């Protein structure tokens, strides 16, 4: 890692990120460096890192460069790599706007989960085309300690297990021990959502994220929850020919999810930049060598 590195801090429904602008992909973000940046006591603190790189400069994104100028190289707080981050991609778009790279309107962002279309609205909210959900067949179970719940396996580019519970407090302290789904269904680990009903097409959730622990929100998780809730309610837009919209409350705010008859899912929510600065070079040296 070179010595002088700029950062920003941002969040989407309080799913918070350290943003590292690095157009030429010159910063070596090792897993240890990411974990140090995300450390809430000894580092800057965040659920993950949004590494902002031009697609043409990143080996994983070069093939998408003609479609999307910028690549969201997303990392979880423990340094692991994930395919997609729904709150992250809104905050990523907000950063591009803040830095003057884009203005209000539509843009395409490359992610490991493919190119996502993003709309920055005048009112400040950001809408992301999240793609289609996959619903692998087969029952899955999520467990916390001695307790288990049946869950729905939903893939939003990344893996989710959605469990409907009587009370969000049922899940207890999601950190000790963390919830898990069966390794056979989730060989790469899983994000677990616990969900309760709040009203017609309105649910609330808690989430334990793979690689980050319990967070205040998860955008891909909210999409997985909306789809699982719709199927549970007997609603499939592909069958009815009508879009289905669910409001999903998360501990850090609210997301609105619409599934269209063609299966495409759109998520709308806020994205905020809260600070910007430069890492202290001596500190960086000490944590990443
Ligand atoms: N917070 C994210 C999801 C981030 C990735 C996830 N932890 C994984 O490993 O799949 C979101 O808003 O979608």
What share of residues is helical? 10-25%
Going by CATH, the architecture of the largest domain would be: Roll
State the CATH superfamily name of the largest domain: Diaminopimelate Epimerase, Chain A, domain 1
Report the top-level CATH class of the largest domain: Alpha Beta
Shape: globular
Specify the biggest β-sheet: 17 strands, mixed
Order of helices and strands: EEHEEHEEEEEEEEEHHEEEEH
Number of helices: 5
Explain this structure.
- The chain is α+β, with helices and mostly antiparallel strands and about 290 residues long.
- It folds into two domains: about 140 residues, Roll (Diaminopimelate Epimerase, Chain A, domain 1); about 130 residues, Diaminopimelate Epimerase, Chain A, domain 1.
- The chain has a 17-stranded mixed β-sheet that branches.
- A hairpin with a 2-residue loop joins strand 5 and strand 6.
- Ligand LBFN2T5F binds next to helix 2 and helix 3.
Layout of strands and helices, then pairs:
Layout: E1 6-12, E2 15-21, H1 31-38, E3 48-54, E4 70-76, H2 86-98, E5 105-111, E6 114-120, E7 126-132, E8 140-144, E9 147-155, E10 159-164, E11 191-199, E12 202-209, E13 213-215, H3 219-232, H4 237-240, E14 244-250, E15 253-259, E16 264-269, E17 272-278, H5 281-288
The protein binds ligand LBFN2T5F.
Give the structure's gist in a few sentences:
By secondary structure, this protein is an alpha+beta fold. It has two domains: 137 residues, Diaminopimelate Epimerase, Chain A, domain 1 (Roll); 130 residues, Diaminopimelate Epimerase, Chain A, domain 1.
């Amino acid at each position: 890692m070179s010595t002088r590195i700029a950062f920003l801090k941002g969040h989407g429904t309080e799913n918070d990120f350290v943003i590292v602008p690095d157009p030429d992909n010159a910063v070596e973000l090792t897993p240890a460096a990411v974990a140090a940046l995300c450390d809430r006591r000894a580092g800057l603190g965040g659920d993950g890192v949004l590494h902002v790189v031009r697609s043409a400069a990143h080996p994983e994104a070069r093939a998408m460069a003609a479609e999307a100028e910028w690549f969201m190289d997303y990392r979880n707080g423990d340094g692991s790599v994930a395919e997609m981050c729904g709150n992250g991609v809104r905050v990523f778009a907000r950063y591009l706007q803040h830095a003057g790279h884009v203005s209000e309107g539509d843009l395409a962002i490359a992610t490991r989960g493919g190119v996502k279309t993003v709309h920055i609205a005048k009112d400040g909210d950001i809408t992301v085309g999240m793609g289609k959900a996959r619903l692998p067949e087969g029952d899955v179970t999520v467990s916390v300690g001695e307790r288990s719940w049946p869950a729905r396996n939903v893939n939003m580019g990344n893996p989710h297990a959605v469990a409907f519970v009587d009370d969000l407090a049922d899940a207890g302290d999601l950190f000790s021990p963390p919830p898990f789904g069966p390794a056979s269904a989730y060989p790469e680990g899983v994000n677990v959502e616990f969900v309760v009903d709040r009203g017609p097409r309105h649910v609330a959730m808690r989430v334990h994220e793979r690689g980050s622990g319990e967070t205040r929100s998860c955008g891909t998780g909210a999409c997985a929850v909306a789809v699982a809730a719709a199927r549970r309610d007997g609603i499939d837009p592909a069958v009815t020919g009508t879009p289905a919209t669910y409001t999903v409350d998360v501990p850090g705010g609210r997301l609105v999810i619409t599934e269209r008859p063609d299966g495409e899912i759109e998520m709308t929510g806020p994205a905020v930049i809260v600070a910007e600065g430069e890492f202290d070079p001596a500190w960086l040296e000490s944590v990443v060598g």
